[in-house]
DNA sequence: TAGGTTGACATGTATATACAAGTTATACAA
DNA sequence: TTGTATAACTTGTATATACATGTCAACCTA
């Protein structure tokens, strides 16, 4: 038997969108029209639509229809460093401080607001891999269990307060010269560092935490894979 | 009305997986068992399963069941630089050469194989933003229209030979000191560069192209967003 | 004219059903 | 013992149907 009908419907609609037959913002034919056109049921058409929606080509609006979406950016699966578990964290500093300017701005703090700070070194067998600063808005009275934060992401830590999947993370990566306190902590005269800023935002828009990491070359490159839905198995590693 | 039933089923199963109730490799209860347990139809249970499968928690195996998957890496939407279209490419070199060692290795070329090379500078209003090298395996007799390659990705360019969606891209990002010829081309004494290697692979595993880009600080940071399925609208930009 | 109602039509959720096709353990035959 | 049917599971595909809910334009009323 050939490909399933709902896949073939998705294929032809996808092709029609890609070839410009349905420009961005266009309303696709309704489910009823399509099910008549393909002489099939509405349920089967919906399966095709769900696929295209998952791929980002269209967006469903109840009561309105399916709207063709602008081409979205490539989706990558990001992997930090090697899957090597021999690394350890050395905590340098934990406390409640006035936030440095960049953290205050990212967390949208008001003048005088305090933050919980955690500064750590990641190393593997004595070799420093990364310097890591985390900033969490300090709420008077909230238990500061979070001072014990391990390497887990904010998202992991806050998965009880929020559904981990609901949290949104924004990252910025740049090459940088380390500030003095980082260079000192990392020991060597490292100059080729990757700086990774992360901001974790709750579904309600509350800024939950901000972290800045400085990655040394020993940490390894930041790797990303696109194509197919992010399962690790189809991501072998041809780039040497 | 409360949340839809299929969403609630997905929620409770997700929670059960996250809390270790169903370890990795475990087989979930079958659709029939679940539809009895929740006193609903198999179709509704399947909707829940499809969600969890899309989120990577489980994987369906026909004839077998739903298998709990290992936690997958976060999926990010990557954005390069600003959405500023005032930039231009200046082509430095186009030709057919013996590949440099890193390109030959990434493309898995044999001794003596040649590549088409394109070296370009990206700049905005006279300021260099990036240095870009692309390498394509040279096939004798293939028309070298590709010498005209614009800023389009390989994926765009080869979308006629392959479905653009089928192509897989692997990226590596690191901070680097530029090699001499790049420093020369970029003019200034730039030292804080992001190096981005990309390898594009066809569905059959054929290595289609390799590119190496050196991004200056003026190019802007590499940005990534996670959470929700990669639509651009829910990615405003709080990190300043 | 301004504002509210209604109805046609869109997608969202849910049920019941049927058959196709992959998997596996068990029973049985060579 | 080894191989092969078979039966009882599993998920995959597809249909027909019902009602809930969001959207919007046309119409009606004050």
Short structural summary:
Helix content of chain A is 21%, strand content 32%.
Approximate strand percentage of chain A: 25-35%
Report the CATH superfamily of the largest domain in chain A.
Answer: Chorismate lyase-like
The count of DSSP E runs of length 2 or more, i.e. the number of strands of chain A, is 10
Pick out the low-confidence regions of chain A.
143-153, 228-238
Give Rg of chain A in angstroms. Answer: 24 Å
Please give the count of helices of chain A: 6
Order of helices and strands of chain A: HHHEEEEHEEHEHEEE
Number of domains of chain A: 2
**Biggest contact:** A-B, 62 and 62 residues
Which structural class matches the secondary elements of chain A? alpha+beta
- Gross morphology of chain A: elongated
The CATH topology label of the largest domain in chain A is: Chorismate lyase
Instruction: Tell me which CATH architecture of the largest domain in chain A applies here.
Output: 3-Layer(aba) Sandwich
The protein's oligomeric status is homodimer
Helix content of chain A: 10-25%
| N- to C-terminal distance of chain A | 41 Å
- Tell me about the largest β-sheet of chain A: 6 strands, antiparallel
Strand order of the largest sheet of chain A: 4-5-6-9-8-7
